[in-house]
Amino acid sequence: MATKKARRLIDKKKYYGVKTAEKKYRKEIFNTFYDPSLIESLLSENLPFIQQESFNEIVYDYFAAINKRIVQLFETARELLLDSFQKGSKRILDKEGGVVKFDEIEDTAAIDILIDQQLDYYEGVSQAQSKKVNQIIADGLEKGQDPQKISQQIHSSIRSISSKRAMRISRTEVVKSHVLGQVQTMKEAEIEEYNYITSNDSKVSKICRHNQGPKGREKIYQVQYAGTPNNPLPVLNSHPNCRCTVVIR
Ligand SMILES: [Zn+2]
Question: How far, CA to CA in Å, does 81 sit from each of 34, 154, 157, 217?
Fold first, then answer.
């Protein structure tokens, strides 16, 4: 399988439309975890009392405020990931790169776990930020830095962590839900076998090259067991930022 032409088609079509969801999700995560005015208002209130204790309070208040916003972020995530799941469910490619039409899926349970997991990822962002902020404060106080400088460092570290995590979470989760949508359709349509297709360029990871199998003799996987180590799916069984896809065999 997979002539050059087929590969080009697959590459062109595989994640069509998910970039928008990815961008939107990235932006929402970033804005939830980095709000300069929120940091500013907390810091300006407390800056005159530069003692470890008052900074602990700042950190506490800051993350309490963030936690309130997470509820909203979670609702947005649910919409975006479900949308990507449904898009995936309509994007079943064959090995020539053609889109095959099937009935609409009925069961969306496969994505529920994924949606719930988002809360763990948000917690991870909060933890990473809180750890870093506490470290900045401890260092700053020990070195006797002025509050202004400490404040700047807090701003830039919260911004940087938010941006990196937002990128990683949005890319990974949107693609995951898309892949889960594809698998759900294949299951409901009683498709039995699939291939795992890489982008076939020099950036493809060792894991994915292995998952695909040698060119022209791509490995055959069982839809029924898709998402297990012996029947791998892109991202779910490979790594974040994976660009691979699945096609009907
Ligand atoms: Zn890959």
Answer: 22, 31, 28, 33
Q: Tokens standing for 25?
A: 């999700």
- Mean per-residue pLDDT over the chain, rounded: 91
225, two tokens: 């067991």
Domains held by the chain: number: 1
- Say how far apart CA 229 and CA 236 lie, in whole Å: 9
User: Counting runs of H as helices and runs of E as strands, what totals does the chain give?
Assistant: 7, 5
pLDDT, one tens digit per residue, over 178-198 is 999 999 999 999 999 999 999
In three-state secondary structure terms, 227 is coil
CA 233 distance to own-chain centroid: 15
User: 235 CA distance to ligand 1 centroid (A)?
Assistant: 7
Expressed in angstroms and rounded, the spacing between residue 160 Cα and the centre of ligand 1 is 26
- Whether the pTM exceeds 0.85: the reply is yes
Distance of CA 129 to the CA centre of its chain: 18
Domain that holds residue 8: 4-248
Task: Determine contact, residues 212/197, Cβ cutoff 8 Å.
Answer: yes
Cα-to-centroid distance, 246 and ligand 1 (Å): 10
Indicate the residue type of 174. V
Distance in angstroms (rounded) separating the CA atoms of residues 166 and 178: 18
Is residue 107 pLDDT above 70, yes or no? yes
